[in-house]
Design goal:
The complex is a heterodimer of chains A (267) and B (442).
Chain A (H helix, E strand, L loop, with lengths): L2 H4 L6 H6 L6 E4 L1 H6 L1 H16 L4 E2 L10 H5 L3 H17 L4 E4 L2 H10 L8 E4 H10 L15 E4 L13 H8 L4 E3 L29 H11 L4 E4 L2 H13 L7 E4 H8 L3
Parallel strand pairs in A: 1-2, 1-3, 3-4, 5-6, 5-7, 7-8
Helix pairs in contact in A: 4-12, 8-9, 10-11
Chain B lengths: L1 H28 L11 H13 L8 H30 L6 H4 L1 H29 L14 H32 L16 H9 L4 H25 L7 H10 L13 H11 L30 H9 L5 H5 L1 H4 L6 H22 L9 H5 L2 H5 L6 H5 L6 H16 L4 H13 L17
Helix pairs in contact in B: 1-3, 1-8, 1-14, 2-9, 3-5, 5-6, 6-7, 6-8, 9-11, 11-14, 14-18
Classes of the chains: A alpha/beta (267), B mainly alpha (442).
Chain lengths: 267, 442
């Protein structure tokens, strides 16, 4: 494929409106997806899938701002409220009807905490959207590509699983990879946190005898997974660090579901 | 006649003192901040039937769930037997329902007896679990002293109660076999367990001793029941009552949804309103700023959090599922709940003693719960997920954080940086908002 074909098409809402168009869906990239080098790759994988399926989407670009999730979990309701009210104003102004997020924390806040403050849009997590696209036949996978027959284990993000009871969509997607899907001893509603939630991502842990991500990575190593599938940029960081801690980078890869799918579909 | 009078006095005192303590607890719970849980009645009833009556969440761990179920069902059935004990106690009759119910009576008492045997075995196992087996969640620092004793007292009382039931029925059966029971005629009652135990254990006693044993069993039974009832308000065992309202009023929303503070919303909206006059006198009925953002003490928590505190039976499933606790951090969600109850009891007692406006120098945050504990939480909801009686330790932790951050500006330094970044550049890291879509072309 030529370089031109490979180029991502990522319009902003403002650009679309300038062309008298409206996005069907807004891709809420999130702070990690925008600024974290590892998470940027996940954003790109999501965009590749959206481009391939010809979804009319847009991002907010420089108009996007933190949802306020880490501020709220850290107890600063003022900082959260400032973010929420400004974001809602912006989204309402653009008449956004549907949002897909690349991060369960953004997903949770937009979906559960914004409506009471005046928001009125549908919010899905990217694993839910990918699952829907596969089901509708818009995203065709010819087997699992390089993941064929490999062992994959899914680490449930707390803010997708327990917080919002989304357990099946990511697993349904992974089943399409013709890989061996193995569950860790703690999964779904019993899944162990990676250690990053509740604003822990931005601080050192309190004194203890172990890091939480090490405890969780042990679960994944125990099932001999070749790939740890994640659906959250924070979990991705924590699990990647855990694998590095055990010096297993060559054996175990940590990939977001969007990356697994865009890779298998050779996008 | 004297025993009837004694019984009536016991009944009045037993229920009277219980109601007195219940009203104290009601008052304590109502010290909490308002929270509307009056919606979705049908869904709430369904949840109560499943989670409280049906013990759905207990079955996440099958062995303790089954043993707990035996004790629970035995308790429910034995409670029906109380109706007869009360009828006999007041009227002076003996086995009031025997002739009225016939074979149904035999079936009922037999069921109670079989369940009592199962409950007896379960209770012995629970005693062993608590005291001999090394179950980590019963060995933690918050489970020493009174909480440990409390757990054991309940189990000992159950043993005494069950022994009384078996003594009462066994002795009565032995008497009836000799035609000496207070029930006319002779033969076997046909109760499944006592018709088996009477010939083995009770035939060696003479009639007089059997009479005494039967009475000791009967009075022992009712005394333990009333003792138990009045012990409940002081004990973790109060969950047998509180599980029902607590589950009914539990959060039905997605667990990830934290409540929005409307007071903060109003403040922020005013900031964005160019027509807002900060010096204007507030309009009538306009919500004023609360005394305090977040929670420093128990009165700052919602009434549901306070109800949670009275519902906890200290099983520790929350703590054993907590990622922070598992990795040796100071946080234990169970301790958060136990501290809340202890502090609430203290505040309630102070108010009763020194008047409703009395304030001591202590508070939940600081004197009971440390900052280190609440900052160790990852808000993963594992504790909320695990609780068999719908307790939500996370909302207490977040309310305490809110107080620390918004009232005292006490926040771990890295988080202070994160918060400043969000306020300045709309991201938890120090990147310019204008660079948000640079990733597209990188």
């Amino acid at each position: 494929m030529s370089n031109e074909m490979n180029k991502l098409r990522v319009p902003t809402v403002a650009e679309m409106i300038a062309n008298n168009e409206r996005p069907d869906i807004l891709f809420w990239v999130g702070c990690s997806g925008s600024f974290d080098d590892r998470a940027k790759k996940i954003s790109k994988a999501i965009v590749k899938i959206l481009n391939y399926c010809n979804i009319k989407f847009a991002i907010l670009g420089a108009e996007e701002s933190c949802t306020g999730d880490p501020a709220k979990r850290a107890g600063n309701e003022f900082a959260f409220m400032m973010q929420a009210i400004q974001n809602i104003e912006l989204l309402k102004g653009y008449e956004i009807q549907k949002i897909v997020t690349g991060c369960p924390h953004c997903f949770n806040t937009l979906k559960n905490e914004y409506p009471e403050l005046g928001a009125d849009f549908e919010v899905v997590h990217h694993t839910q959207l990918i699952n829907q696209l596969i089901r509708e036949g818009r995203l065709l996978l010819k087997g699992g590509g390089k993941f064929n027959g490999k062992k994959i284990t899914f680490h449930d993000p707390c803010y997708l699983g327990r917080a919002n009871d989304v357990y099946e969509a990511p697993r349904e997607v992974l089943e399409k990879l013709d890989a061996e899907l193995v569950e860790m001893k703690r999964s779904k509603s019993k899944g162990l946190c990676c250690g990053a939630g509740g604003a822990q991502m931005f601080k050192d842990a309190e004194k203890g005898n172990k890091e939480i991500n090490i405890e969780r990575t042990e679960d994944a190593i125990e099932v001999n997974a070749d790939y740890i599938a994640t659906g959250c940029p924070f979990c991705n960081t924590m699990m990647t660090d855990g694998i590095k801690h055990f010096e297993k980078e060559d054996k175990v890869k940590v990939l977001d579901i969007a990356e697994l799918i865009s890779n298998a579909a050779e996008l | 006649m004297i025993s009837q009078l004694l019984f009536i006095v016991l009944l009045v005192v037993g229920f009277g003192f219980f109601s007195f303590n219940i009203s104290k607890i009601r008052k304590n719970i109502s010290l909490g901040k308002p929270l509307d849980r009056s919606d979705n009645k049908a869904q709430r009833i369904k949840t109560t039937l499943l989670v409280a009556l049906g013990q759905k969440k207990m079955f996440q761990r099958i062995v303790p769930a089954l043993l707990h179920l035996f004790i629970y069902v035995a308790f429910l059935f034995t409670s029906t037997e109380l109706i007869e004990i009360i009828a006999d106690g007041i009227s002076g009759s003996h086995r009031f329902f025997l002739n009225k119910l016939g074979w149904i009576y035999v079936l009922l008492i037999s069921t109670i007896e079989v369940l009592s045997v199962l409950a007896f075995i379960s209770t012995l196992y629970f005693l062993a679990r608590r005291n001999l087996l090394q179950v980590p969640r019963f060995k933690m620092s918050e489970m020493t002293g009174w909480p440990k004793l409390d757990g054991n007292i309940i189990l000992y009382l159950e043993i005494v109660l069950l022994v009384c039931v078996f003594t009462m029925n066994g002795a009565d059966e032995a008497l009836f076999l000799q035609g000496k029971s207070h029930v006319a005629g002779s033969g076997s009652f046909g109760f499944l367990i006592s018709s088996f135990t009477a010939p083995y254990f009770f035939n060696y006693f003479d009639v007089e001793t059997l009479m005494i044993l039967e009475r000791v069993g009967w009075w022992g039974h009712i005394l333990v029941v009333f003792g138990f009832l009045n012990y409940l308000p002081y004990s973790k065992h109060f969950h047998i009552i509180m599980a029902f309202p607590n589950t009914y009023f539990s959060n039905l929303n997605n667990k990830g949804a934290f409540n929005n503070l409307s007071s903060v919303k109003e403040e922020v909206l005013k900031m964005f309103d160019p027509n807002f006059d900060p010096y204007a006198t507030p309009k009538e009925g306009e919500a004023s700023v609360p005394d305090r953002f977040g929670a420093k003490d128990v009165q700052d928590l919602t009434w549901k959090s306070l109800m949670d505190a009275y519902t906890c039976t200290e099983c520790g499933r929350c703590t054993s599922a907590c990622p922070a606790s598992q990795t040796g951090k100071l946080l234990s969600p169970r301790k958060i709940i136990m501290d809340t109850r202890d502090r609430l009891e203290e505040v309630g007692a102070n108010k009763r003693k020194n008047g409703p406006d009395f304030k001591d120098k202590k508070s939940l945050l600081g004197d009971y719960i440390t900052e280190e504990e609440i900052w160790a939480c990852t808000s993963c909801n594992a504790c909320v997920q695990e609780c068999p009686v719908s307790i939500d330790p996370l909302s207490i932790i977040i309310d305490l954080r809110r107080y620390l951050v918004m009232e005292e500006s006490k926040v771990p330094s890295e988080l202070a940086g994160m918060l400043t970044n969000i306020e300045n550049n709309g991201a938890p890291w120090q990147f310019a908002q204008a660079d948000r879509n640079n990733w597209v072309d990188e």
